[in-house]
Amino acid sequence: MRNLKSFEFQFSLVMLKDTILEADMLVTCDGQNSVINDAAIYVSEGLIVDIGSRKKIHEDYSAKQIIEGQNKIILPGLVNTHSHSVQTFLRGKADDYALLDWLRQVVLPGEANYTSEEVYFSSLLGFAEMIRTGTTTTNDMLTTHHSNLGIEAAVKSGIRARIGKMLMDVESGFPAIIKEETETVIETTRKQIDTYHQTQDGRIKYSLNARFLLSCSPKLMRLIVETQHDYEDLMLHTHASESQAECSEVKKMYNDSYIRALNNLNALGSETILAHGIWLDDAEFKLIQESNTRITHNPSSNCKLASGICDVLRYHELGVLVGIGTDGPPCNNNFDMFRDMRLATFLQKVKHLNEQALPASRVLKMATIDGAKAINWDKEIGSIEKGKKADMIMIDIDQVNALPLYDPISHLIYSSSGKDVTMTMVGGKILYHNGQFKTLDFDKVKTAAKKFQENWS
Fold it and tell me: Left if phi > 0, otherwise alpha if psi is -120 to 50, otherwise beta: which for 315?
């Protein structure tokens, strides 16, 4: 599917270039939430070496590559803490369904019938859209079948990812082809971990993606937890307490509430991230807090599926780490993290009838450094600081929606969109710049998408 040696050679050449990036404004998302005007960043061998004024950086360093920043804001690359890249070809095919009908009638049959080529190109299209709209790191769930090709798509795109196959061994009204034998699930998973975990200079990390408790037997969940303990830096990623109907079915299957069931399976903890986490009682919130489990809030998905509103403020009061995720295109229809940042703050203001709830600076942290913390990657990414990976994006502010611009953080949350992104860099490698993808042939991706559309129409 690709000439690996040739691709890696070309990719390494890009990384070895020293680069100076300039910007009218630099939003660092560091501990002080610093904003630097007339700024520049010196990048070498994939790392941020120095940050300062444009004048100082040019006095102290020279670089083969200079990215000019007139009318630009630079900020850390966005961290999408919950995505389904492989569902991208199903965009627009599951509108206006409730969660369980959405899964059983459209999404799981769609995933089940993908060819290996469709898994690859649907995932690649998803990663391309993330890169185009400012996401540099994603926590991604794939399919049960051909999932290795979804990981290969992440490798090809250049995105940073926690990623893995979808783990399911219970039909529960889902297509039979989706189900795998419990031992087969774990055997395939361990092979993929050994092949992909901590590869691509640490850019690709495997994740244990238990879909949700309705599709995972207690035996499988225990084996997943055992597998996690056998490896370092391996996260468990699953959906939990997303809708009332789902919680009701989980209670019938597990004879307990969702979070209690996960706790009984020893599946909570600092290496677990739960997608959604909406319908919890007081004791369950306490379990999340005490176990240091992480939450990914997915506002657009929760709205479209009418699942409910996650109480982000309550999680924050308890000291729980909460990131922001887009979920998949059939339940939100795009991967634009800017939209989900804005919606996240709006929903908390409405839920709590408090106009000061989740202000712009706080929600930006959720999408950057807090998101990185939530997936245990904050030592390397999530903020623009010396020594961290050069994962950053550039936003065009020479646009009608940027006039006037009083506060860059306010603009990023309340006015910007992913379409304003002009440059995306991961580990010092430019993946997208001024309308051009640098690591993938987008015409081939479009051709594959149109072919799939014709077949499904």
Answer: alpha
294 forms beta bridges with: 273
The residue to which tokens 């489990």 are assigned: 293
pLDDT for 7: 37
Distance of CA 48 to the CA centre of its chain: 22
Indicate the domain borders of the chain. 4-76+387-437, 78-374
Q: Is the dihedral of CA 371, 445, 412, 53 positive or negative?
A: positive
Class for domain 4-76+387-437, per CATH? mainly beta
Residue 457 contacts residue 41 (beta carbons within 8 Å): no
Which residue is listed with tokens 């999932």?
147
Q: Angle 338-343-346 (CA atoms, 0-180°, nearest 5)?
A: 135
Q: Encode pLDDT of 151-178 as tens digits.
A: 999 999 999 999 999 999 997 777 777 7
Instruction: Encode pLDDT of 67-96 as tens digits.
Output: 999 999 999 999 999 999 999 999 999 999
Are both 4-76+387-437 and 78-374 of the same fold? no
Architecture category of domain 78-374 in CATH: Alpha-Beta Barrel (3.20)
pLDDT tens track for 299-346: 999 999 999 999 999 999 999 999 999 999 999 999 999 999 999 999
Buried b (16+ CB within 10 A) or exposed e, 138-174: bbbbbbbbbbbbbbbbbbbbbbbbbbbbbbbbbebeb
How far apart (Å, rounded) are the C-alpha atoms in residues 356 and 374? 24
Q: pTM to 2 decimals?
A: 0.95
